[in-house]
Amino acid sequence: MDLTHRPRRLRQDRIRGLVSETSLEPADLIAPVFIDATATTRQPIESMPGHERVPIEKSVARVEEVLETGVEAVMLFGIPESKDATGTRAWADDGVIQEAIQRITAETDAYVITDVCLCEYTEHGHCGTLEPALRDGECETPDPSLTVDNDATLTSLRKTAISHAAAGADMVAPSSMTDGMVGAIRAGLDDEGFHDIPIMSYAAKYESAFYGPFRDAADGAPAFGNRRHYQMDPANSREALREVRLDADAGADVLMVKPALPYLDIVRDIRQEFDHPVAAYNVSGEYAMLHAAAEKGWLDLEEVALESLLSIKRAGADLILTYFAEDVASRLH
Fold it and tell me: In the 8-state DSSP scheme, what is residue 131?
């Protein structure tokens, strides 16, 4: 028996860390924060244990909690005081996110990233302006084959991103999977003098069943139909490279894959194909299912959370947007 090669030699405690191929640090993580203009107190999110919707007045305190764990960046999601057909509160000067940005940037050192989408702001819950047949009432009942008017939505996304930058956001993150969104937003930001505001594009965002708890948290579920007409087919991988290349060519600074764990092959493909920083969104369903298993006593939550994030980093992600950010960062920190 030839045992010249013994990989176990390098698995001993005193050397294991020295030869570790992947490291995870608090600075790699981005913590989502939900700001609710309709709330007067912090409201627990039942489907996402440990997370809350917080009133605008509590937004600074919430972000300070994140910073105490060693996480340096937050992603803000807003629940507006009112909704309408086109989501006009998304770009209002006194909107929920705009007010939260001003408070957070004035009182903390957090790096503030904002989600740029319309689903939380439209009364129908879709990620943009509806197709003309739906807007004009030509369909007696909503036709699931007709959803978002792509080109009309670009104007709204552009205005929203500009309003976030004007309020003081450090980075904007368009997530609607609208064709041309990065180019429209980059042009809008540059026209208004925000040349240094980077764009983190949800460049490969799949139409996934793992988003369920988030739609509860952000009050953004579609009132009819689904989002399969603008989000990607989970069966496709080559299409992801095409989508990402379009956003990179249009000026995206960071390229995101969403969800993360079921799409680690996509994260790896993008890492190998592009020189841009790669982000991955460890989404609400990925978070909730580990919590559910842990509550049953089937898994050690702390260990599986760390292992999950480490696997995303190993696949090639530079940044991870995750609901485990604070818990894992506290352990690492």
Answer: P
Please report, for the chain, the start and end positions of each structural domain, with discontinuous segments joined by +: 21-330
* Residue 18 CB partners (closer than 8 Å, separation 6+): none
Asked if the peptide bond before residue 55 counts as cis, ω within 30 degrees of 0, the response is: no
204 in Cβ contact with 243 (< 8 Å): yes
- Please, how many CA atoms are within 13 Å of residue 92, restricted to the half-sphere of its CB? 21
Residue 111's alpha-carbon distances to 5, 198, 311, 325, in angstroms, are 47, 12, 25, 14
**Would you say residue 331 has pLDDT above 90?**
yes
Show the tokens assigned to 143.
């036709």
3-state secondary structure 222-235: CCCCCCCCCCECCC
Q: Which residue type sits at 301? A: L
119 is in an annotated binding site: yes
Give the pair of three-digit tokens for residue 195: 């040349």
117 is in an annotated binding site: yes
Residues with active-site annotation: 205, 258
Give the model confidence (pLDDT) of 188-198 as tens digits.
Answer: 999 999 999 99
Task: Kindly state the tokens that stand for 332.
Answer: 């690492």
Q: Is 127 annotated as belonging to a binding site?
A: yes
Whats the size of the chain, residue-wise? 333
- Are 154 and 180 in contact by the 8 Å Cβ rule? The answer is yes
Helices and strands in the chain: count of H runs, count of E runs: 12, 10
Statement: residue 236 has pLDDT above 70: yes
Q: Is 314 annotated as a binding residue?
A: no
Is 139 labelled as part of a ligand binding site? no
Task: Convert the pLDDT of each residue in 116-169 to its tens digit.
Answer: 998 888 876 677 777 765 555 555 555 555 577 888 889 999 999 999 999 999
Question: Which residues pair with residue 84 across a beta bridge?
Answer: 122
DSSP 169-203: -SEEEE-S--TTHHHHHHHHHHHTT-TT--BEEEE
In the chain, what is the straight-line distance between the N-terminal and C-terminal CA atoms, in Å?
Answer: 45
One-letter amino acid identity for 61?
A
How far from 251 is each of 26, 180, 199, CA to CA, in Å?
Answer: 27, 11, 8
21-330: which CATH topology? TIM Barrel (3.20.20)
